[in-house]
UniProtKB/TrEMBL annotation:
Record's protein name: MarR family transcriptional regulator
Domain HTH marR-type: 1-139
Entry-linked InterPro entries: HTH_MarR-typ, MarR/SlyA-like, Tscrpt_reg_MarR-type_CS, WH-like_DNA-bd_sf, WH_DNA-bd_sf
SUPFAM superfamilies: Winged helix' DNA-binding domain (SSF46785)
PROSITE patterns attached to this UniProt entry: HTH_MARR_1, HTH_MARR_2
The keyword Repeat belongs to this UniProt entry's keyword annotation: no
Domain of life: Bacteria
Organism annotation: Streptomyces crystallinus
Length: 140
């Protein structure tokens, strides 16, 4: 039996949807400025932080490993990513951002004004409360 959402819940859901849509639009635009798809930009952003096994990338992106292989192949062809053996288990391949890939990822992050500007209008305490509420919503 479905229950109807109250007006406040509907408004919050709509506002969250608007924030996500605006962030997604800006992210896609910023990625395109670097001749990347949104998925390629997300992978590059993850790999700029640390090398990640291919299966770990698939888990982080919530997609099939075969999808990640194609994305990494295209990034590798551009010299933004490289594959290397995992020192802990040489059977496992790690994907890692190259120096050029880290530069592109930094430029991409720096160009995401929408993600940064609205949060800048919140105090550190308000940002902490928002973070905590979002984590709670996600069960973290």
């Amino acid at each position: 039996m479905a229950t109807r959402m109250d007006a406040l819940t509907l408004e919050v859901v709509d506002l969250i949807g608007s924030v996500v849509a605006r962030y997604h639009e800006e992210y896609e635009r910023a990625a395109a400025e670097h001749a990347l798809t949104g998925a390629q930009a997300r992978v590059l952003g993850l790999l700029s932080l640390e090398p990640v096994p291919m299966r770990g990338l698939a888990r982080a992106l919530k997609c099939e490993p075969s999808n990640v292989t194609g994305i990494v192949d295209r990034l590798e062809a551009r010299g933004l990513v490289e594959r290397r053996p995992d020192p802990a288990d040489r059977r496992v391949k790690l994907a890692a951002a190259t120096a050029s890939g880290r530069e592109v990822a930094t430029a991409l992050r720096d160009s995401l004004d929408f993600a940064r500007e609205p949060l800048g209008s919140l105090s550190p305490e308000e940002r902490g409360v928002l973070r905590d509420l979002l984590r709670r919503m996600l069960g973290q």
